[in-house]
Amino acid sequence: MQANGNANQRIARISDHLNPNYPKMEGSSGLQQVSCRAKGGAPGFKVAILGAAGGIGQPLAMLMKMNPLVSVLHLYDVVNSPGVTADISHMDTGAVVRGFLGQSQLEDALIGMDLVIIPAGVPRKPGMTRDDLFNINAGIVKTLCEGITKCCPNAIVNLISNPVNSTVPIAAEVFKKAGTYDPKRLLGVTMLDVVRANTFVAEVMGLDPREVDVPVVGGHAGVTILPLLSQVKPPCSFTPEETDYLTSRIQNGGTEVVEAKAGAGSATLSMAYAAVKFADACLQGLRGDASVIQCAFVASQVTELPFFASKVRLGRTGIDEIYPLGPLNEYERVGLEKAKKELAESIQKGVSFIKK
Ligand SMILES: NC(=O)c1ccc[n+]([C@@H]2O[C@H](COP(=O)([O-])OP(=O)(O)OC[C@H]3O[C@@H](n4cnc5c(N)ncnc54)[C@H](O)[C@@H]3O)[C@@H](O)[C@H]2O)c1
Fold first, then answer.
1. Which atom of ligand 1 is nearest to the CA of 265?
2. Using one digit for the tens of pLDDT, what is the confidence trace for 233-269?
3. Dist. CA 137 → ligand 1 center (Å)
4. Among 86, 127, 234, 340, which residue's beta carbon has the most beta carbons within 10 A?
């Protein structure tokens, strides 16, 4: 009987790979693991990556396939997703992988998902203005979020596509229009800034980066990235030169990679690592783990701006608590004013894109 059961499970699993179109599952959020077990997958959550064949998407897909909290992994892109899916599906980890190609398969990719990670879009290329980049990525994020409102309105959304300071307000407006907006479930991914800050501070102080925790608040571009070096754990004191050096290096980490790659792209591997660290925190929160805290760009009342990045506690329904900034020193207060000025414009730009 046992052998028969295993064979049936294997057949179900193989047919699942071959035919990704399966019936709609009710109730997309939370701990609905029964249907995953029935397909032979490990217990866990259903995760979709939109833009899965890209520079970030591919290593992100690989790392999520290795994540024991994931039972089903949907890989969607407008190009090359069948190849990436075939490749990743050979990894002998628990998650069942399914691929989806092109707009006509977007809804199938999204149905029943607990978490949707969005690295879809174009990175900045030589000759491209910020406005060119904005218009392309804003349109992509709008289309993808419209799919989410239809197919998995209760999913947690991790938005990576740049400019995050504008794409998160865009997503919020799309969800509001559809009547599905829940600010607790929409998170702009600023984790790479935190990962870089931890690494660079560890280098300067001679520490192990795994033991360093730097809160990075504000937004995710240039001066809007505000590392709070006065709140680093373990407590560190920096000279004014070290503070200047670290703040500038953290704010310009993206440019450092773009220049080193010399025309061959932007941060993809460290970004995939950061995205998985953040997604894993969201899944731990969904699972009900206590004290899961990370920085993210979210709808917020921490400042007068409608969106702001700061530390948030993640729980079963997304963001459970948003923490205030804590005491800032003079250097950080000046940085905060600069950050808020630029952020206000970027947020407005995103809102106007949908409202125009
Ligand atoms: N949040 C962050 O910290 C951070 C860091 C680095 C890069 N980024 C941003 O992430 C995005 C992706 O960067 P990348 O280097 O992976 O770019 P990439 O061009 O290598 O990959 C993007 C992928 O998105 C896909 N895509 C395009 N339109 C799509 C659509 N309508 N639906 C689904 N997929 C679509 C492309 O086919 C491609 O596979 C860029 O906007 C980049 O600026 C964000």
1. 15
2. 999 999 999 999 999 999 999 999 989 998 888 899 9
3. 8
4. 340
pTM: 0.90
Among 53, 62, 38, CA closest to 83 = 53
Segment holding 117, helix H or strand E: strand 115-118
> Which whole-number Å values give the CA distances from 348 to 145, 179, 215, 341, 352, in the listed order?
18, 20, 25, 11, 6
CA-CA distances (angstroms) from residue 17 to 50, 74, 88, 98? Answer: 18, 11, 12, 6
Are 71 and 40 in contact by the 8 Å Cβ rule? The answer is: no
The tokens for 233 are: 């754990």
| Residue 356 burial (C-beta neighbours within 10 Å; 0-12, 13-18, 19+) | exposed
As a whole number of angstroms, the distance between CA 258 and CA 266 comes to: 5
Composition of the chain by helix, strand, coil, percent to 5: 50, 15, 35
pLDDT tens, 178-195? 999 999 999 999 999 999
51 Cβ closer than 6 Å to some ligand 1 atom: yes
Catalytic residue among 17, 74, 90, 220: 220
Cα–Cα–Cα angle for 190, 191, 192, nearest 5°?
95
Q: Count CB atoms within 10 A of the CB of residue 345.
A: 12
Proportion of the chain above pLDDT 70, given as a percent: 88
Q: What is the mean pLDDT of the chain?
A: 90
Q: How far, in Å, from the CA of 14 to the mean position of ligand 1?
A: 30
Indicate if the pLDDT at residue 17 is higher than 70.
no
Place of tokens 């106007």: 352
Can you say whether residue 206 is alpha, beta or left, with left for phi > 0 and alpha for psi between -120 and 50 degrees?
Answer: left
